[in-house]
Amino acid sequence: MGSETEGNEIISDGGIGRRKFLGFGVAAVGGAVLAACGSGTSSSTTTAAAAAGTTTSGAPARQTGPIVIAGPQDNSGTTTILINQWNNANPETPVTFQTIPPVTNDVYNQYVTALAGGASTPDILTMDVTYPGTFAAAGWVAPLDQYASAAFQSAFIPTALNIGKYKGKLYAIPQSIDVGQLYYRTDLLTKYNETVPTTYAELVRISQKIQTAERATNPNFWGYVWEGAQIEAIVDEFCEYTWGYGGEISSGSKVTLNTPAGNKSLQFLYDTVYTTKISPPGTSTMKPNDALVLMQNGNALFMRNWTYAYTLANSPTQSKVPGKVNNAPLPGLTNGSGHGCTGGWMYSINAKSARPEAAWRVIQYLTSQAQQIQLTSGAGLLSARKDVQTDTQLVLKSPNLKNLPTILASAKARPSIQNYPAVSATLQAPLNSVMANQSSVSAGLAAMQAAVASAVVA
């Protein structure tokens, strides 16, 4: 997945109603943010013009006219800045931005409804990494091979680019890659003479110790917060803990969930709320931004979340603990056995778009080195471009990048299951039912296995 977010106490959600989304009402990105860029606007505008001007030999004729891009809200404002830079340099092809819902389940459902109905906008779809195969098979997104040269494709990490391919053709370009990781309060670990946990036992022990101590002055403090709501994130976390217990999610072409490792995974998650009690009672309704707000407000020691959370957890204007949150690989049963689930966002072109060539130039611009450096530095997202991940100045300015190579080294991807979004949706209800204490671990696993009986791993 990409970062599933839901606005609340500190972060406004920016979500849109179903009717507005399906009607694709858009608001043009105005000039106020561009003006706020100060002296940097001129060079950025030049970069935007340069990035817009190249296509591969034999590509369709250059097109102009308005382009609509749908994507998740960027609370850092970086996306707004990038689009303003484009519009300043390319007034004949103005881009407007349509905010999509904060949870990937809702995004998928609304995209499917609109595209199946033949909608021609948005021209550019920002989609979760699990969508490209399903959308390509349905004919809803256009192949990009005629636009994306070999040189362009070689700039990206192969594993990230390959996610956008279906039956040998390229249908999506990585906007950013993501990975589940452990966030922690550096000041509290130092205060209580503890280190970052690398095993589940350490995670529980340290959480209980510091939670008990901190509650002497903060009764709202929790040792470990994570996302247990009925959304894609709970499937990702089940995968992470199953891997951490030495198991796998698939065997051959079959999805295998009701296994010893799967049982231990779900039992551990259940126990965090009801047995070890290091996680809040409301975990079954918690989404990524809910967990983030607890960390931002100084009410959590550890948090499982996505890459975007680093910048916001350390923001001087949005967090009460700026500079006191760091990231690390997720723990496992034994030291070094933890695995974060990979995710991210990709750009695709609506097959019904009236201006696919213009849409491609916008994608080319947004995924160029200069703009990806801006997105990584400003929004805290992780680019899939090799030349961005290794940019020395960027790493110095973006502390969250320092630990990401280690986190990514142990990361794992969900199985390539045919029609994955629909399969995942059938798993979220039984997982959430266990976390809401409405069904047992064994009953939840049995229901999950039954739900994937006909699922096929590609």
From TrEMBL:
One Pfam match: SBP_bac_1
Superkingdom as given in the UniProt entry: Bacteria
InterPro entries on file: Bact_solute-bd_prot1, SBP, TAT_signal
Protein name: Putative ABC transporter-binding protein
Species assigned in the record: Acidithrix ferrooxidans
